[in-house]
Amino acid sequence: MRLNYLFIPLLAFIGITFSSCIKDEALNNEADIEIATIPEEFILSSPIISNDKVTFTVYKSLDLTKVAPEFRLTNGATIIPASGTVRDFSKGPLTYEVTSQSATFKKNYTIEFVNSEISTAYQFETFKEKAGGFYNADIYHVFYENGIDEDTGKEKETFEWASGNIGFAMTDGDTDNPKKPSDFPTSAVSNGFVGHGLKLTTLSTEPLGPMMGSPLAAGNLFLGEFDLAIAVSKPLKGTKFGVSFTKEPIMLRGYFKYKRGEEFQINNLEKNKIKEDRWDAYAILFEAGPEDVLYGDHDFIDEKIVSIARVPESQKKETSTWTLFEVPFQYVEGKTYDPKNKKYKLALVFSSSEEGSLFNGAIGSTLYIDEVEILTNDENENPKN
Amino acid sequence: MNFKYITTILICALSLPIFSQEIKVKRQHFFNTNTTVQIRSQFSIGGATPLGLPREIRDIKSYNPTLQLGMEANFTKWFTEEQKWGIRTGIRVEGKGMKTDAKVKDYLTQINYNGAQVKGNFTGNVKTQVRNTYLTFPILATYNVDTQWTVYGGIYLSATIDRSFDGYVYDGYLRQGNSTGQKLIFEDGKQADYDFSDEVNRFQWGTQIGAEWKMNKNFFLFGDLTYGFNGVLKSDFDAISFSMHNIYLNLGFGYQF
């Protein structure tokens, strides 16, 4: 049929247009440190790598005056000083510059080494303001702890507390009305039990959060890491509990005030166990190699867990005056503290809604916490330290 | 729906010449001497496509032209008794659309994340669905090759009466701001929508060439190509780093009075 004369060239033309070949891949524009390493024997806890910072938690046996961290970068990227360069980290964090394969983008990383033992008393006096959210316009608090540097005798930051604030900053993007620290679920207040204190509030993520499957955000603070990149798709896997701990904890204590929010919302009925909102604080000692953590969905069931101190239901009451809570660590059956053969991490978690990780809670539930301490058994120090 | 109204108006308009024929006015004037009136219906295969795929697009995993229909009424004035050369204009209501699933690397886009419009560079998979309806005025030169074949070509002007250009990103990650920004990983069914419907150009113009083949005195088949000179999306919209053009193959049949 003569129609073919018309059709074939037309189809050929369309074919050429749409199959116009996939071009060669462009050079990478990313400039990430993907993996950071030092000799394994010095590593206490796997380095935490964020978008512009790498934190190594190391044994005191590592001589910080000459460390040669090695880096694996985005394919094709380069780093200055070069991977493996010996540098003196004893005076504090140092900067590295990563340049993308395309040479178009550069990113500065701060590399820090933490070798001081984690403190066991937390006054919540030290915090800083950080900008976050999509427009970097939302300001939230980040608590950190100081310790005395044994070499210099000066006070220096030993670690930052983790919280979901950085994720909460992503729940809306109103440039005209940026969020203040007090608008966040986790913040510092000036009227603590002594000095400043910690305030945790269960907040609504409306109007936009519910559509994304996270209708509320409980205030939380914990020892560990909140990994925003992962938390986007899997909030509980982005919540990583635990920092290395070298003592035998025997008691968790501190002071609290609590006011329950009005209406208890149950968004996850399947796993719901409680009828009204209540606060939560717990500490878990668990066996852990450098890479092991407890994820947000641990539910107190994990074979790594050695002992647990959790504020019992009877103490999770409403009170407007500072009230002491004191909870002993209880060993999981069959587990003992064995510092000669095992390494441990400690998870310490505070939340304004016990089932906050299930998105069950009452908007407005407010927990104040201050002067927290982990009492340890000094006779059982970890000789490896 | 816009489309229905316009179709109705079009059909009414088309029925006018039929009535006028019945009246059998024999007076000859410009509009009934050496003229042809056609109605045509078509379906379109094509897409809003960059001219040469940009490097950000690593793979087109699927492409679906979707069912895009159109209707046209046109009027041709032939210059001579032999009806060799003529000029044609008309009105056409047409859909132009497609669905694609592409793999991209470092692709500048703007997504809706928890209500915030986030610009960034996405590496992963992008699904796109385009459904635009245009009201188009072709201005074409026509040439009768022989008694069966007619070829035509010229330009068209289009007004966009219904705009939709949206989709979502999945299985990948966004770097907030630029390629070195905070990484946000989308996986396990987590996706982020984008909607550029408001950024679709209200006006389109381009070129059209094609041919008709007469089956008998009244019925004919046709095929033509349209290519949009200006981008589908507004030129000041910078959340996609390359310009996309409407390129469509239209196939259909018509009736000539």
Task: Count the DSSP helices of chain A.
Answer: 3
Largest interface: A-B, 47 and 47 residues
Alpha-carbon distance between the two ends of chain B: 29 Å
Q: State which percent range the strand residues of chain A make up.
A: 35-45%
- Structural class given helices, strands, pairing of chain B? mainly beta
Query: By CATH's scheme, which homologous superfamily of the largest domain in chain A applies?
Result: BT2081, beta-jelly-roll domain
Average pLDDT of chain A, to the nearest integer?
87
- Measured distance between first and last alpha carbons of chain A: 88 Å
Rounded Rg of chain B: 22 Å
Would you mind describing this structure in some detail?
- The complex is a heterodimer of chains A (385) and B (257).
- Chain A is mainly β and 385 residues long.
- Chain A has two domains: 26-115, Immunoglobulin-like; 116-380, BT2081, beta-jelly-roll domain (Jelly Rolls).
- In chain A, 6% of the residues lie in helices and 40% in strands.
- Chain A is globular.
- The model of chain A has no long low-confidence stretch (mean pLDDT 87).
- Chain B starts with a helix and ends with a strand.
- Residues 12-20 of chain B have low confidence and may be disordered.
- Chain B is mainly beta and 257 residues long.
- Chain B is built from one helix and eleven strands.
- Chain B has an eight-stranded antiparallel barrel with strand order 1-3-4-5-6-9-10-11.
- Classes of the chains: A mainly beta (385), B mainly beta (257).
- Chains A and B meet through helix 1 and helix 3 of A and strand 1, strand 2, strand 4, strand 5 and strand 7 of B.
- Chain B: Pfam families: OMP_b-brl_2.
- Chain B: Residues 38-232 form the Outer membrane protein beta-barrel domain.
- Chain B: It comes from Myroides albus.
- Chain B: This is Outer membrane beta-barrel protein.
- Chain B: InterPro entries: Beta-barrel_OMP_2 (IPR025665), OMP/PagP_B-barrel (IPR011250).
